[in-house]
Amino acid sequence: MAAAAPLLPLAVSLGDPAGVGPELFVHAWAQRGEAGLAPFFVAGGSQVLHEAAQGCGLPVPIIAISDPAEAIDAFAHGLPVLGAEGCGWHPGAPDADGAHLALDSLTRAAGLARDGVAGAIVTGPIAKSHLARIGFTQPGQTEFVADACGVAHSDAVMMLAGPSLRTVPLTVHCPLADVPGLISRALIENKARIVARALIRDFGISQPRIAIAGLNPHAGEDGRMGSEDREVIAPAIAALQAEGLAVTGPHPADALFAPHARAGFDVALCMYHDQALIPIKALDFDEGVNVTLGLPIVRTSPDHGTAFAIAGKGLAHPGATIAALRMAGACAARRQGTV
Ligand SMILES: NC(=O)C1=CN([C@@H]2O[C@H](COP(=O)(O)OP(=O)(O)OC[C@H]3O[C@@H](n4cnc5c(N)ncnc54)[C@H](O)[C@@H]3O)[C@@H](O)[C@H]2O)C=CC1
Ligand SMILES: NCC(=O)COP(=O)(O)O
């Protein structure tokens, strides 16, 4: 498979070293040729990666580099790692040392992408609750990377993308009970505009077709099953249409992901986390990518989490990690004008 080639290597953050992240990045490097991956390096964690490669029975040399630029040549010979060794590999046993390594890796990888010495950041999965115990204050890595880039959280938009569809949760890591109060015209219109710009710039879709889901059953059934669809979502859609955006809805969410419906849009904007993530994980779990739109840098991640229960057991599928690396390379190449 021919790779889109950005000029700069991709910076990878390790994720929680007790999760599936380290073994998946090792597998991704081993499959770099057939998967068409652009050169990448991991920020820290060389001991974890070395032990993970051994644990997987993969001959993956770990190559210490002192500058991201060295990753381009080193990548052909081994998995380049920039910076500190960190702790050892203890799959399935998260602890504070591992959380510190994950946060340090994320901080450095984000900084390198922001400073223009890495072409993108690809984040390994973290457990938000474990990192919170050592001082991680953001709801997730999306907001962390937004902060690193000086972008308001409201302008950093999570999109899940797989071979079958793309979805955007308009509200993300919040209690379901808070969702109706958080849905506003301003939220829908702002995120729809960011999504449209990003699909044009990073994905080469010249006129993105955006379907917007309703909140309530049957998109409210003319107000009989909730008022938000009629009073908030529909006016936002009308305003976006008046700007010339190809927006439709509010669509009853239950039928929005049927095959014939999916053929009619490039992205679905959903009202809450599970409305967006359930269809992606049902259809595309092993190739699903979480990509942050609206940033000055490219950021992707596999769509799954740390999966502590299967870490180190040879059960974790590398497909989503490979897809995240491939998408980061393609978006970075598009931004750098090399495709
Ligand atoms: N991008 C990120 O950093 C994400 C982090 N998380 C974090 O991960 C932790 C665990 O969350 P869960 O809801 O349990 O989700 P999870 O994705 O870790 O696990 C859900 C299910 O999918 C399986 N699974 C996950 N990745 C897999 C892979 N590559 N191959 C095969 N099976 C796989 C797991 O074994 C489990 O059965 C939480 O602390 C959460 O905050 C969750 C989602 C994304
Ligand atoms: N459910 C998606 C998720 O948890 C990923 O969040 P983020 O860490 O990428 O912000």
TrEMBL record:
It is an enzyme of class 1 (oxidoreductase). Its cofactor is Zn(2+); Mg(2+); Co(2+). Substrate binds at T142, K281, N290, R299. Homodimer. This is 4-hydroxythreonine-4-phosphate dehydrogenase. The active site is located at the dimer interface. Transmembrane segments: none annotated. A divalent metal cation binds at H173, H218, H273. Catalyzes the NAD(P)-dependent oxidation of 4-(phosphooxy)-L-threonine (HTP) into 2-amino-3-oxo-4-(phosphooxy)butyric acid which spontaneously decarboxylates to form 3-amino-2-oxopropyl phosphate (AHAP). GO terms for biological process: pyridoxal phosphate biosynthetic process; pyridoxine biosynthetic process. Pfam families: PdxA. It catalyses: 4-(phosphooxy)-L-threonine + NAD(+) = 3-amino-2-oxopropyl phosphate + CO2 + NADH. It is found in: Cytoplasm. NCBIfam families: pdxA, PRK05312.1. Pathway: Cofactor biosynthesis; pyridoxine 5'-phosphate biosynthesis; pyridoxine 5'-phosphate from D-erythrose 4-phosphate: step 4/5. Its main location: cytoplasm. It comes from the Bacteria. GO terms for molecular function: 4-hydroxythreonine-4-phosphate dehydrogenase activity; cobalt ion binding; magnesium ion binding; NAD binding; zinc ion binding. Its EC number is 1.1.1.262.
